[in-house]
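One chain is below:
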Amino acid sequence: MNLEQLNENRVEQALTRLASTDNQHAELAGQVKYLEEAIKQAKSHSFLLSDGTVAEREAKALSSVKYADAVKMHIDAYVQFKTIDNERNHELRIIEIWRTLSSNRRQGNM
């Protein structure tokens, strides 16, 4: 997109996209936080069920299927969150650029 294509319609589109993704963004952020705790729980659960020294139990917990599944779910949710977060940040940048350009036009700098 070049600066000539940046107009009020594009800014309105950016605002609409932001508004339409508010809930999804918040839900994904919450899911990421929840899954961070799920990772800890999975590790703790596997640790408590294991036998051996603390180091052996730690290794077993970190290599457990339950822990690996929790980490995978967290990574998947985080990727989804960052994707929508990046898209939203792009829209915010468009709005900020438009605001700067509009201000410059009003001041006669363009």
Observations:
- The chain has one domain: 3-104.
- The mean pLDDT is 93.
- Residues 3-104 form one domain.
- The CA atoms of residues 14 and 90 lie 9 Å apart.
